[in-house]
Each structure stands twice: as C-alpha cells, then as structure tokens.
Amino acid sequence: xxxxxxxxxxxxxxxxxxxxxxxxxxxxxxxxxxxxxxxxxxxxxxxxxxxxxxxxxxxxxxxxxxxxxxxxxxxxxxxxxxxxxxxxxxxxxx
Length: 94
Description:
Layout: H1 16-22, H2 28-44, H3 52-56, H4 65-90
C-alpha cells in the first residue's frame, strides 16, 4: 500500500455510544456500508466513487440516502478540523 499521500494515523477513535446513537435508524446493511465508507475515507482522505463497486458492492447512486447524509456531515466536520489544524500549525501552536 502506498502511504506517502496519507495524512491520518492508522487508527481513529471510535465512540461506541455515539456510533449506536448515530446509526439507530440505519439497517444492518446500511451500517456496514457506512462504517466501510468511513474507514475508506479515513485511509484515503476521500471516497473514490469509481471504486465503490469493489469496496461495497454498489455504485454511489445505490448507496442508501441515510448513509450519504451521514458521510456528508462527517466530511464537513473533518474539513473544519483540518482547517483548525492548519491554522494552529501556521500560528506555531504545534
């Protein structure tokens, strides 16, 4: 695996209660798709839509809307965190 373009550590924190609260209205299949896409997004910093068929066995158009919605929210949160980290680096805070 080529990791030179990856900026995330190999693991991320997983809060079980937050997960269960956030996926209560998803089916088990949707939960599986969601966690798979979250891990791909963490590893690659994107979800390569051309490879979705390989990763989860369905095209983006067939991904359940609830899963897409949750991923959009997580993407916004990660974007905000990235911006904050960049500002902190620029100010020499770490």
